[in-house]
Structures are given as C-alpha cells and as structure tokens.
Amino acid sequence: MNIVHNEILLIEKSRKSRVLVLSATNLGIDLLPPLYDALKSMGRQPKLDVVLISRGGSVNAAHRLALLLLEYTDDLSFIVPDRCESAAVVLCMAGQEIIAGPATIFTPVDPSLHGAEQHGPSPKAVSAEDIRLFPEVIKDWFGIDADAAEDQALEILCENIFPTTLSSFYRSIAECRLVCHALLSSHMGKDSDDDISKIYEPLLYPRLPHSFALTDNNLKSYGFPIHRDSEIETPAWEIANILRNKVGGASINAKEGSRVDVFLATSELARIRFRNPDNPSGVWTDPETVYNPA
Q1: Does one domain contain both 88 and 225?
Q2: Which of 135, 154, 170 is the last residue of a domain?
Q3: What pLDDT digit, counting tens, does each position of 114-125 carry?
Q4: Averaging pLDDT over each range in 62-76, 102-116, 166-180, which range is the top one?
C-alpha cells in the first residue's frame, strides 16, 4: 500500500522527474540494501527528486547513501518539507538543489559521542563543539586570560575525558568535514574549495545547540543551493502529514515497543521497516501488513 502515491505523482508531474520518498528516524548504513533495491526498480533517471524526512543518523551512512543516489542520476535534488536534521543535512549536500518549505526544520551537524548509561549530572551525549568551546567558557565566564584559559581547559579535559575519547571527537569532525566537502564538490566542482568550506563550516562549528532549529534562509545565507517551490509545497507537506503518525515514535503500537522507523517509496512500490520486541533489528515488509492487518 503506497499511502503517498498520489502526492508522488503530483510532484513528478510538476517537476518532470522521478520521485523517491525516504522517511527515516535514523539514517543508518543498513538502509543501503533497500535503497538500492528501490533505485534498481526505477532504473537510472535523468532527474531524481528525493523527498527526505529524517532526524539524522550516521554521517558515514549519509555519505554512502548519497553516493548510491548519485549512481542513479546526473540531476539529484532533495525536497525537505519537514524535519531534516544533522546527518540528513549532510545527505542533502549531494543535491544540486534543495527545496524547502515554510515549516522545514534544519539543525547543525556537529558530531556527538554517546557514552554508556550513567547516573548523576553527566550528559549521555557530548558534542564535539561542546569540547572545542570549553576554553572560551573559562575565558568569558570567569575572566581568565585566553592563554591561561586554554591551559586550564586542556588540563580539566584531560583529567575528566580519556585522551582517546578526545581523539575520537577530532576524528569525527575530520570525517564530517571530508564527507561534506566531497558531497558539495560532486556538483560544485573542485575549483572552489574555499567557497565550499564556507558553506558547511557554520554547521560543523555552530555556537548554537545541536538541536537549534534552522530555516531555509539560514542555509541560503551559508551558500546552500536552496529555494522554495510553491507548485510542490502542498503535496510535499501532505507527504509529511501522512507519514508523521506512520513513522517514528507516534507509529503503530509505539507504547508496546513496536514501531515503524523507515518508510521508503516510489510511485510503483512502498516498503517499511517494522520493529517489535521479537524483531529488534527490524523486518522489511509491505505497509499493508502493518497499517491494515487482516
């Protein structure tokens, strides 16, 4: 059952393209096989639009998914009517254009590391930017000289964070910069490296929280190829409305630990990944079996 079939057709007619819908609570590398199957069923397209709704995931996965999408078209665009957060923003960097709406939410990309479950005031996840800005906290909040603040910050960090954890933060930022640069270069060319870095660095080194809601105008000011399209705004938003209660925490039997965490569709097919206590890794199935069981 393709519950967004009509909306896909409206976008395809308006944009003279083929449309793929990907709604995922988490972008993981395990999305690669089903995405490959969907793209194979469509075949290589002159113009491919991906309607993307996601709260983020793995930067490495976003990179690999983007490379697969680029295998199937020379003209890739992303339509983002609703949530497009963190690693999902990285995925969009592969697009020659990004089409947003009035209610679209973007967020910074700065990587975070998640620690083990613990009690007390320590956060479960720490952003790389939280670490990088720590010397400024000491300098600005306590009026300590900049050089002394850096020395004190380094001493405090090394006493409280294992050194290889700091190295992991450094490597995660290096990975993110490499991926962002490569994806933007895929359609901007290699002669504008300085301009490309100016596009993604505000998202990697934000002074705002990782969850801060950015708009399409914010991304446009950074240099992203982003705009609005009034002709497809309604069907794109309708896709978001349809899937809002079908994917993620609000999906079927979420309170009992059963939920849909991925919806993947073209005009010809639709597949979902359904997780429940008996299948925690998830099983790919026809939406009909979950949304309208016999």
Answers
A1: yes
A2: 170
A3: 544 444 444 456
A4: 62-76
Yes or no: say if 287 and 1 are a contact pair by the CB < 8 Å rule.
Answer: yes
Length of the chain: 294
Domain hosting 165: range is 112-170
- Sign of the torsion formed by the C-alpha atoms of 186, 192, 194 and 199: negative
pLDDT attached to residue 145: 74
Contacts of residue 282, Cβ cutoff 8 Å, sequence gap at least 6: 261, 262, 273, 274, 275
Q: How many structural domains comprise the chain?
A: 2
The residues near 1 (Cβ < 8 Å, ≥ 6 apart) are 270, 286, 287, 288, 291, 292
Clarify whether residues 219 and 98 are in a common domain. yes
- Give tens-digit pLDDT for 179-214: 999 999 999 987 677 789 999 999 987 677 778 999
pLDDT digits (tens, 9 = 90+) for 130-145: 676 667 777 777 777 7
- 34-38, 103-107, 254-258: the lowest-pLDDT one: 254-258
CB atoms within 10 A of CB 277: 8
Shared domain check, 90 and 61: yes
